Amino acid sequence: MKLLIKSATIIDKSQASLHMQQRDILIEKGKITAIRKSIAAEKKTKVLERENLHVSPGWFDSSVSFGEPGYEERETLAKGLEVAGRSGFTGIVLNTNTQPHPDTGGDIVFLRETAKNHCTALYPMGTVSLKSAGEALSEMYDMHLAGAIAFSDYKNSLNNPNLLKLALLYTQNFQSLVYSFPQEGQLNPKGQMHEGEVSLKLGLRGIPALSESLRVARDLAILEYTGGKLHIPTISTGEAVSLIGAAKKKGLDVSCSVAIHHLWHTDEVLEGFDSDFKTLPPLRDKKEVKALLKGLREGVIDYVTSDHCPLDVEEKRREFDQAAFGAIGLEETFGILNQLFGPEKAVEILGRGRERFGLEKTTIAVGQQAELTLFNPGTEYTLTQKDLLSTSSNSMFLGVPLKGKAYGIIRGDKSLF
């Protein structure tokens, strides 16, 4: 099949002659075969035209949760991948918060086989420890051979320092990446939100910024001792930015990400006790948000993630201290980043990450397999329930004015728009 994209503004800084230029793009059998100012549509060619159409290399998200297996009522793999694609993401890294936890090669094969015919590529992670219990290493090499792209116990912190040491040492044999969630849980037993003025006012148990910086400092010290590749997901404090920046200057192989909601909201939104704003790490105060934005601009923070985490309504509509942590975010990520940084920077941020996981970086060039995101950066709207694509509705951006929306994606001979 031939697909002709008409009059699209290309955003791809790696292609200087095409960047910010309006072009027609012809795709045949999943490959880009022509990029010109005007291409005539031949017979049996599907023509794609949209208002204010922009196209970029496909977006990538390094931290996404669905529900299957075990929590299909939250979101199945099929539905989640559709949500990701319609939100502009051609590739997502799948978290390990399922039941059972993916801790064997067979679990990874199941995830890959279930997702293989979808337009958005799913890259599964395996757990660091058996059943994410934090005691014994999982079958990491078997999972690597089966296609696990990295290893993570999701938001179960690796409390045993020896476990992290062994994981970093062992994965050097096959150059894989280890995630370590940055929270020292003993500093915040039963913590519900950021520890500060707002938590005192509301009478809720706090999670101090110190719990993050202590764990980051410990993990970086272990990384310096062992070597290996470490990723610290969803940091939320300025001190974490400083520690990771210093580690990078020392040459340590560390990367980090920030969740989209930590760049926009502060803990003040919790004054209404709305559990949709309850996340881990918790929303922090204005000082921390400012430090995170600076860390992203300066390149210390490597990636922005949606940290998409669908939850059933019964898990959220409880007393605040009983409600589950987590929020969906795939649909809203571009609309927030576009407001914060403009379309060129937003697209550049959303295109990061593949190389860290050993994947090939995508670009818009003749001869390349098509892996494209189609979007309108000028669409302005206020997010409502009808805009949500996910099975779950636990969004913290309902009622927020957004700018920019994805039309869909093209990956190889598959498309979703």
Protein model, in words:
There is one protein chain. The protein is of the alpha/beta class and 417 residues long. The protein folds into 2 domains: 2-55 and 365-416, Urease, subunit C, domain 1; 58-357, Metal-dependent hydrolases (TIM Barrel, Alpha-Beta Barrel), CATH 3.20.20. Helices cover 26% and strands 22% of the residues. It contains 11 helices and 17 strands. It has helices at 77-86, 105-115, 140-146, 161-171, 197-202, 209-226, 238-249, 286-297, 313-316, 333-341, 343-350, and strands at residues 2-10, 22-28, 31-36, 45-48, 54-57, 59-64, 89-94, 121-124, 177-179, 193-194, 206-207, 229-232, 254-259, 303-305, 371-382, 401-411, 414-416. The longest helix is centred in the middle third of the chain and has 18 residues, at 209-226. The radius of gyration is 21 Å and the shape is globular. The mean pLDDT is 97.
Which structural class fits the helix and strand makeup? alpha/beta
Number of strands: 17
Mind telling me which CATH architecture of the largest domain this is? Alpha-Beta Barrel
Q: Given this structure, which CATH class of the largest domain is correct? A: Alpha Beta
- Annotation field: number of helices: 11
Order of helices and strands: EEEEEEHEHEHHEEHEHEHEHEHHHEEE
In the CATH scheme, what's the topology name of the largest domain? Answer: TIM Barrel
